[in-house]
Design a protein that fits this description.
2 copies of one chain form a homodimer. Chain A is an all-alpha fold. The first copy, chain A, has helices at residues 2-29, 36-42, 47-53, 57-81, 85-103, 105-112, 127-140, 150-169, 178-189. Chain A has 2 domains: 1-53, Arc Repressor Mutant, subunit A (Orthogonal Bundle), CATH 1.10.10; 57-189, Tetracycline Repressor, domain 2, CATH 1.10.357.10. In chain A, helix 1 (2-29) crosses helix 4 (57-81). The longest helix of chain A has 28 residues, at 2-29. Chain A starts with a helix and ends with a helix. Chains A and B meet through helix 8 and helix 9 of A and helix 8 and helix 9 of B. Chain A binds a DNA duplex (30 and 30 nucleotides) through residues 3, 7, 35-37, 45-52, 56-57.
Chain lengths: 192, 192
DNA sequence: CTTGATTGTCTAGCGATGCTAGGATCGAAT
DNA sequence: ATTCGATCCTAGCATCGCTAGACAATCAAG
């Protein structure tokens, strides 16, 4: 039976290779450049192999999104843990979030802009997504203010960060002044 | 020379028909369904006719976006003009914005999600886009608070609304509680 | 009025996309 | 050694955005 297990290991490794390659390609040349042909060529297999791992391109995007969500949760917790006091902690969270979005645009797109076929804000939402939101909640819950539901507050704060991240990257907002926007957001939204 | 003028009128009418049809199709079945073939069939011309009016699909999206920006500016001014006092005015603006995004998802996508080849936040930004931002600024400028640049404040408030609008529609936020999010945003961000 | 040129439109086709059917090949088990 | 099942690839489908070249209608000049 060990032969079978080895094959399963190799198969799992190939699946990771597909996801990693898709992500790499997307970060290098954008998601439009991630075609099934190019992806297949890079992993040195034929196209149909992709479809033996994933239902289609959507699921590949979804896999990148899950990977990214886990990394984002780590990044956010790392950013907040180094800060002193609620004010600085929230500011660090906001900067960390925007920094992550800026440094990993393809992953961010897979998470929040593209359709990866994932369920959000539901019971069957994948664990990494729930955990990324939890990382936000851990920091933001304590500054929601009296009478305001921590979850709702986190949603609003997150939405604001998301708006700044996407509008900035799409050229809808002037690229400078990011720090001032963060300051404004933190000082006004958070109850310290 | 009148013959020539008539032809120009007819040509302009056909261009409006293209934009209106693209928008209609996008609202009905989403932008993915707006293919050059389908669009050409609906206006009862062949594909190449589209390319005698627009450089490509991108420019058609851009045309829909400009049309939408003008409508959005009107909608926002209508919403704010009916409200009494700064607090209610800002809340009405926020509700009007989210309402517009919800009721015209395809137009909203053309404006802020898709690439319509338009310049944003620059000198050569088309007038309708500037005016839509101006409509926001007119209302939000007076609640920016002391020492905060009205333009910057408007950008942040707008980004927050944009985040709520996009995340809600993509199913990333629970669909209910919109009103509570608006209240929170207005009460915290605006200085009354 | 006839001719030639210009304008307008269409048919047909290019390269590329996501995805799939069917056959070939290879290894494990009898 | 032979069967059988899993694995993988070649080839192809329908569709996409976009364009070249043929054709017809229209206009200006002789």
């Amino acid at each position: 039976m060990s032969v079978h297990e080895r094959k399963q290991r190799e198969r799992a490794a190939r699946e990771r290779l597909i996801v990693a390659t898709a992500r790499e390609l997307a970060e290098q040349q954008g998601w439009d450049a991630v075609t099934t042909r190019r992806l297949a060529e890079r992993i040195e297999y034929s196209q149909p192999v992709l479809y033996s791992h994933f239902r289609g391109k959507r699921e590949i995007i979804g896999a990148v999104a899950l990977e990214g969500a886990a990394e984002m949760a780590v990044a956010l917790r790392a950013a907040t843990s180094a800060a002193d006091g609620p004010r600085e902690r929230v500011a660090a969270l906001a900067r960390g979030y925007l920094h992550f979005a800026e440094r990993n645009p393809a992953v961010y797109d897979a998470l929040f802009q593209l359709d990866g076929g994932l369920a959000y804000a539901q019971e069957d939402t994948p664990e990494p997504l729930k955990d990324a939101f939890a990382a936000l909640l851990e920091c933001l819950g304590e500054v929601a203010g009296d009478g305001v539901h921590p979850g709702l507050f986190t949603e609003v704060f997150w939405a604001s960060l998301h708006g700044i991240a996407t509008l900035s990257r799409a050229g809808r907002l002037p690229p400078q002044d990011t720090e001032q926007r963060v300051e404004l957001l933190v000082d006004r939204l958070a109850v310290l």
